[in-house]
Sequence to fold (929 residues):
Amino acid sequence: MQFLLRWPALALGAALAVTATTLLGPLPAGAARAAAETVVEVTAFGADPTGRSDSAAAVAKAVRHAGTIEGPVRIVFPHGTYQIYPEQAEVRELYVSNTVGADQSYKDKRIGILLEDMDDVTVDGDGSHLQFHGLMTTFAAIRSQRVSVRDFSFDYTAPKVVDATVSESGLADGHAYRVLKIPAGSGFSVGDRQVTWLGETSPATGRPYWSGVNGMQYTQIHDPTAKRTWRGSNPLFDDVASMTDLGAQKLRIDYSTGTAPSDRGLVYQMRQTTRDTPSALLWESKDITVQDLKARYLHGFGFVGQLSENVTIKGNEFRTDPASGRTTAGFADFVQMSGVKGQVNITDNLFDGAHDDAINIHGTYLEVTGRPAPNALTLEYRHNETAGFPQFHPGDTVEIVDKRTMLPVPGTTAGVVSVDGPSGQDHDKSLTSMTVTFDRTVPDSVSPRNFVVENTTYTPSVEISGNTFRSIPTRGVLVTTRRPVVIEDNVFDGMSMASIFISSDAYQWYESGPVTDVLIRRNTFQRPAAPVIFVEPTNQAVDPAHPVHRNIRIEDNTFRTGDVRLLDAKSVGGITFKSNEVSRLDRNTSFAAEAKNRCPAPGTTTSVRTVTTTAPYSTSLFSYRGSSGAVISGNDFDNGLNLRADLDATDPAQVTGDEVVNGADHVLPLLPTTSYTSSNATIAAVDATGRVTAGSTGTAVITPVTHSQLGDTTGVPIKLTVGADPASPVCTKPLGLNTDAWSVVRDLPDHRAVLPDDTLQLTPGGRGFLWAGANSAHNLVLTGTGSGNGTATVRMSGRTQRGYMEAGLLLYRGDDDYLALQRKHNAGSPTLTLSSEQGGRAQEPDRAPDPGQDDLWLRLQRTGDSVTASYSLDGTGYTRLGEPVDVSWLQDARFGVLAEVESVSDSDTPFRFNDFTVDGTPVSFTSEW
Fold:
């Protein structure tokens, strides 16, 4: 959306529009306000609520005027739309945690609404929309108290993130192509097989505020259908043959490759990595409330609280405007509290579409680099994104921590007497180092580069409640503070990393410190990544008698998970997992009813049965490293979960409760019991064994039921139509593999099928070989009939086509012990080959040229400890391939078939197998169910 920009002239008499009124709305946390406040309307200073001209200078003037008023003041944006450009906004030199560190290129921040040295002030948006331009901070509170920012939406015209949706893809003239749909506001130009992304053009300079090329420096992928976002590689600009601007914000990319892209509908979110400015900054301020905002895009970084006190972030919506066509709502984190004291409350917010963590609450470890005096240390910011601002004040309390153990040095809790270092306001000191003098002597053991120091005064109590987290590529909540933490009543949906992460890091991000009281309760973890809750301090020496973290309780939560670990806890003393409910995401589709006859005649009987459609989960639910006092009790676990705890440097006696087994699998069965219900017993009555009695004509649904610790669970039902014509479509059963007689090793369901006339079709999956150390072939279809003794015969139709494709008849005990009679392509020299492995040693005892016809009958005849291999061109007369082979080493083997090749191709034609017999007895591929 483009605006005709006008720089408004500000009337000197605008202050006359300031009036007094009664206080409206909630007060900021901890505020003690008078009954009346002064109202300053930004429109009285020239701000344009129609959105036709730039209001930045008028807003700045209105806020400066508000700062001169004694007593409470409310700065109001009368309902409307306001354009805010950076050129006439306030500018301050600022250094902000986790952004650009000491880089002087970005020291000056342009700020739309600057509350500086103000007390008792409310910014009231009155439901207005603020449209920001360029690269700037929306609002900041610096050295201010009792501040409320509320009730407006804001967005950026041209975010420094390009959300490119693959709207079309396919092949044209044998070559791949994609069409990318680009949101309005994201400009671009095409030339020389590359695209240049262009930010909005500055009305002052006539140049774009930013630009980037192709995938820029970072990409994450968003799937709008699955509602998931993850970090990944960017294939959009590989093997480019040409690019075309199609107009209407569409970009076509043609490729030199011939494989059609498979990513239609996905969104590639691309950006540079410089966090040049925070979206909002709370710096050395107290009693701040940010409430009822609609934050459509956070440029540079998130809402940052830095060396402040008492911060409330409540009822805000961090997500894009659905009409914008964009999916990125944050350039990095959404909320970062770095060195905040008092109380941090983050409640009832929606966090959707960040490029990093949704919430991160931490202090900062500074590394010891020198000892200029017995009671002084030289300290240094170690992460390149954090520098330039003070970390300590006289009177603050600090703790000195051993990096190797992440434990405090005994007797080193000290008070700060003086600090010689960066203040964020001067230019004659280093931005990365400081000398801190304490009120006592520092122990001699504290040596440079081996210890870090944390300001323990600036550690908050935390409440995170009632929030929803979704489309987050990393973690939902990171928190490290020694004061009480409550994380409750939140919904974490589809996190791509841990939903909750507790660290204490003195090696990478230098985010401090230990936790001593954490309560995680009544949350819902939906579709989480592993581990769901992750405790991972960076201590190199792990001693369960001296843990980094203590007293973590995980209670009354709901976990709806795939095959992932729930809890991974390192160096914790006292961690409880209690009264939680854990269910599989597929709990209602993991088993299904099958019927022998879907259309029984009235008065007849048939049978239904229940089969599993998937496997139990194999991942252990718990892992403890160097921990103690771990209690798992009173939880309800779904069927098919592995109630195992993996232990490392942890005494098994310190992990107790429930059915969890330490160090060994304990998988709950998927189908511990089976029963059935009928939707209409008059039409079809079913008993507990699955026997169905057909009554009157009509339709009834038979539902399988099993029991778990969560109660009864229903599976996939089947519909019976009593009295229907057996030839009608409703009576036709899909053909499926006879799992009573056959099983599949490394199943690839979309590459196998059962066809009419009892035919098994296998299409090579391109997963590799069954040869020597490869052992990667999929879809080995095996039967236990005959226990590998007797004579197995099968008719195989199909010839090998490329590479080292193989297909044939097996006598198989395992990947390293088998005998196979196969067609092999041998890189263009097809043969009929007898191959084997004994203990992983592969050989080919005999081979012959491929007969050259599609149909071939294969036979393996076992007599005692020898096997004779033979083949036939017509199914009657057989030709022996080589001499009998000694297989005394091949006991408890099973007959079977396979078809595989080393690489994927869409052009491979399938092999078909039928007339499988063992000792002349047919073994049907087709299930009767």
About this structure: Residues 43 and 591 are 65 Å apart (CA to CA). The radius of gyration is 34 Å. Confidence is low (pLDDT under 50) at residues 1-35. The first strand starts at residue 19 and ends at 22.
